[in-house]
């Protein structure tokens, strides 16, 4: 059969079917398939009639085969009568629901399969065909019924929710106005109005997150939290996703709610730290003084120990990269580096300290710290990140061959983000150093990139424009102009 030798296959299957010791009924269906490939429709009818007369047990599925045999010959009306006989058998014996419906599915007669499952559900309420129906409704494009059946499954077993959401993801998009998104939203809101179960809030929240509508997702998560006032983990996760998607206003709303209502000091601390970090990232120069004061107030409240590690790290980053106070940031990080933190936390301190040293153009000291991280955590993602920063620092420094050597290794990094960054910088160096062995243009561009890193954007733009004008480096990052 697999090799297309249908005549040979049919002769072997005929022997198996006629062997009285053979009790495997699948050989009958296999023989039917072989006859279909050979267009021996008469033989199919004869085989089915013979088997029906000797074994009533397979009558229901053989009726479907007889109908399908007519479909292949273009006799749809005759096929419908056989299909209807099989469906009527379900009405008499609803325990045959699965065997008949699955045979209809085998022959891709999905409408009939749905009809059989619906009859079986009505006649045998204790049986559960929601999974089969949900899948078939999806294949037939009946989204509303597909969502309804999957929600029924979740109602019966909440553990099914993750699987259902994975299925919904195949139809849901980030467009809130799409037909499928609208249908699911209406289905959930309808059920929520008739039965205010937290399950529907959870599914609505998930839907709004897919649409990147974090404001409405927050409304649902807030309603969930107000039911039991236990954990704010979902709210914190939502705030972080909103930040990743750059919906900062929604993130602020979520964090404000957490700060005001958190019963756990740790939860309140996390929300305060993230909110202040977001404020510092988007602050203007006029706001720096106020933000610095708020950092100091939080550190005074929480103390300068291991519990406030994240806050201290954020403060040092703000001082160096925003407040133009790198010396104070270095002192803070040097103190952190002496504290009794975990190996991973110390690596994070070294990473930021090295970043600040690059900011101050102390490249050699920075390279030593980056290398220490690779030695301390050789198989960790932080080691790959530090290796990329070694390459980037070497690029700023003008040591392009060494930077390229590091970057070639990182092209296969386990982190896609690091691999992509490495690829981009690698192409920048290799594409524009082949003919210019003195690296004049590339050096000028590297200095401009360093100015950008130092948050001296005006000087960076001026350097790029001058580089493009005087050295005619039209392909060398001209888009940065």
TrEMBL record:
Query: Out of the domains of life, which is the source?
Result: Bacteria
- Record's Gene3D superfamilies? Tetratricopeptide repeat domain
SUPFAM superfamilies reported for this sequence: TPR-like (SSF48452)
**Protein name, per record:** Secreted protein
Q: Which organism is it from?
A: Nonlabens tegetincola
Q: What is the lineage of its organism?
A: Bacteria, Pseudomonadati, Bacteroidota, Flavobacteriia, Flavobacteriales
């Amino acid at each position: 059969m697999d090799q297309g030798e249908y005549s040979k296959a049919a002769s072997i299957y005929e022997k198996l079917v006629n062997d009285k010791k053979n009790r495997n009924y699948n050989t009958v269906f296999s023989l039917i398939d072989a006859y279909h490939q050979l267009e021996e429709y008469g033989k199919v009818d004869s085989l089915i009639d013979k088997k029906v007369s000797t074994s009533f047990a397979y009558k229901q599925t053989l009726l479907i085969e007889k109908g399908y045999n007519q479909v292949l010959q273009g006799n749809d009306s005759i096929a419908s009568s056989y299909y209807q006989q099989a469906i009527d058998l379900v009405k008499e014996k609803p325990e045959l629901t699965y065997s008949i419906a699955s045979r209809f599915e085998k022959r891709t007669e999905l409408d009939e399969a749905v009809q059989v499952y619906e009859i079986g559900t009505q006649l045998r309420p204790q049986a559960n065909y929601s999974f089969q129906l949900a899948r078939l409704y999806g294949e037939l494009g009946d989204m509303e019924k597909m969502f309804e059946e999957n929600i029924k499954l979740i109602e019966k077993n909440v553990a099914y929710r993750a699987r259902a959401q994975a299925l919904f993801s195949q139809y849901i998009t980030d467009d809130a106005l799409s037909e499928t998104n609208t249908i699911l939203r209406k289905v959930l809101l309808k059920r929520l109005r008739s039965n205010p179960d937290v399950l529907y809030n959870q599914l609505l929240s998930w839907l709004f997150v897919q649409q990147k509508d974090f404001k409405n997702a927050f409304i649902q998560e807030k309603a969930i939290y107000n039911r039991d006032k236990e954990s704010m983990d979902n709210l914190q996760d939502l705030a972080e996703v909103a930040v990743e998607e750059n919906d900062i206003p929604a993130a602020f709303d979520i964090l404000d709610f957490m700060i005001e209502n958190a019963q756990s000091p740790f939860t309140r601390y996390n929300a305060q730290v993230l909110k202040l970090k977001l404020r510092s990232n988007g602050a203007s120069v006029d706001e720096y003084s106020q933000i610095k004061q708020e950092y100091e107030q939080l550190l005074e409240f929480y103390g300068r120990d291991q519990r406030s590690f994240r806050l201290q790290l954020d403060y040092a980053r703000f001082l160096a990269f925003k407040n133009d106070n790198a010396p104070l940031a270095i002192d803070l990080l040097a103190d952190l580096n002496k504290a009794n933190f975990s190996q991973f936390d110390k690596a994070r301190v070294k990473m930021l300290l090295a970043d600040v040293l690059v900011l101050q153009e102390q490249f050699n000291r920075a390279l030593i710290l980056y290398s220490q991280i690779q030695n301390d955590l050789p198989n960790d993602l932080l080691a790959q990140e530090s290796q990329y920063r070694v390459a980037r620092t070497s690029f700023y420094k003008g040591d392009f061959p060494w930077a390229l050597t590091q970057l070639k290794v990182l092209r296969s990094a386990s982190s896609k983000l690091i691999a992509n960054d490495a690829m981009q910088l690698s192409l920048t160096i290799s594409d524009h150093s082949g003919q210019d062995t003195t690296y004049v243009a590339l050096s000028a561009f590297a200095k401009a990139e360093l100015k950008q890193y130092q948050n001296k954007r005006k000087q960076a733009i001026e350097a790029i424009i001058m580089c493009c004008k005087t050295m005619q480096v039209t392909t060398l990052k001209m888009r940065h102009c």
